[in-house]
Amino acid sequence: MKRRHFLTGAAGAALLSTLPVGSIRAFAQSASGVITYGQSTAVLTLDPAHGAFTGYPGGYEAALLIFDRLLDFDDDMTIVPQLAKAFTMSDDLQSCEIKLRSGVTFHDGTPCDAAAIKFNIERMMNKEINTTNRPLWNPISGAEVVDETTVVIRTSAPFAQLPNTLAHGSGAIVSPAAIEKFGEDGFAQNPVGAGPYMVQAFNPGQELTLTAFDSYWGEKPGASGVVFKFIAEPATRINAITTGAVDVIDSVPVQLVGQLEGSADVEVVRKPGLRPIGLAMNLTRPALADVKVRQALNLAVPVATIAEKVFFGFAKAPDSPLAFDAIGHKSVGETVFDQEQAKALLAEAGYTAGSDGMLAKDGAKLTLSLFAPDGLFPGDVSVAEIVAASLKQIGVDAQITKVEKGAYWDHLRQDKANLAWDMAMFGFNPSNASGTYHLASLFKSNADDEGKPDVWNIGRYRNAAVDELLNVADSAPEESARLEALGKAQELVWADAPYLWLQINENVSAVRNQVAGVTVMPIVFTNLRNAAKA
């Protein structure tokens, strides 16, 4: 077994703060306040299995404080140690030896040792218990306890992304004793981890109250407690932070950033995201099965203008199916606004304009059902309306259906017979930071296009060459070969245009100035794990 990675706790800690370590430590030592976070999404469940920390991203953000993982991501999504002191990937990428910190306990006082890690790995391997994030866990074949602080995790095939899986939010380590006490059905409401904060009170969908865990193995928590309070309306969140009712808010509407920047008491925190937004196209529809039609739709929409004007510069037009900062991103194209070229492509595809200017082929008008959530993605309804208006200018009738955000996901992940949309707004957040995971989740062929998608290939895209390239990107021994394959896969997907590519937004939160250490991660999450309040 060859050592490929060795990370120390001190090095990891140095990377985990937006402030110099000494500053955060001094701040934390004097901290005794309770931080109140006004979240845009409610916390419903707190279990890495059984749906994984719903709702999203609120549940994951709370989990970052309650649970530790073997590995973690720093602010730039570099992998750093957490419960592991060090990890070593084998040369064949089929096993990883983990050296654990000693003396770590869960909130219930039971040991967080190699046996507990084995329990957690095997629990997440179980498809009946862990029904989500399957691409992260399917490759793992088992875990072996070597001694109290050493465990080896094995995979059934080369899996270069194993460290990313262990650092992913679903890699949260739970107390086996708590699972036994509350059962698989009860743990999500009674979570017990080994993180810096433990649950004091939980009213799902409304409020979660955490208190500092005095026996935490790492740095002392920077606050005596953290309250997660669900505040759905953006204007209400803005009012709450300007009046001091809360200390932190997320999902700041970019048109209101100027209002906050004028306050001496509030700081706006922003980070480019890893979630490209687009309109997934239902390729089972005859019109959208034609690549010329899909390319024409992309040419018809002024994406760069949307990024600049609608989002006031807090967004960019994409140049790849992956976001700019995703691991393995390659610039493979650009969004071009050319409606004359779009019309020419549609003519080549057999569409002609009627007396009303709308296109038709074989007597059928080119009418598309466009599903968009209301308040789930930044500016979702406004962007959908701009897209529909732009498509109308080239003779395409796009009919918008607005869907309440809580119900939106069910409309996307349907079996083929029940897909009601032709185009649906979607953005995938690669929360393990891997571009390979991102592309595979959205564009790897489903096993059965008639049923529900395996992951998020909701449009039923299918390209054997892309499938093979993604396999190489996931398993080639050398990183250069993996990145080369991932780059070629991006080129093919971009050329096939299974999405109408839209914008990549920045994640924007706001923090009152008596709180330090709040970070906004590229993967949407506002992270209070290292926050401190005097």
From TrEMBL:
Its main location: periplasm. GO terms for molecular function: peptide transmembrane transporter activity. One of its GO terms (cellular component) is ATP-binding cassette (ABC) transporter complex. It is found in: Periplasm. Residues 78-447 form the Solute-binding protein family domain. It comes from the Bacteria. The keyword ATP-binding does not apply. InterPro entries: Peptide/Ni-bd (IPR030678), SBP_5 (IPR039424), SBP_5_dom (IPR000914). Keywords: Signal. One of its GO terms (biological process) is peptide transport. Belongs to the bacterial solute-binding protein 5 family. This is Solute-binding protein family 5 domain-containing protein.
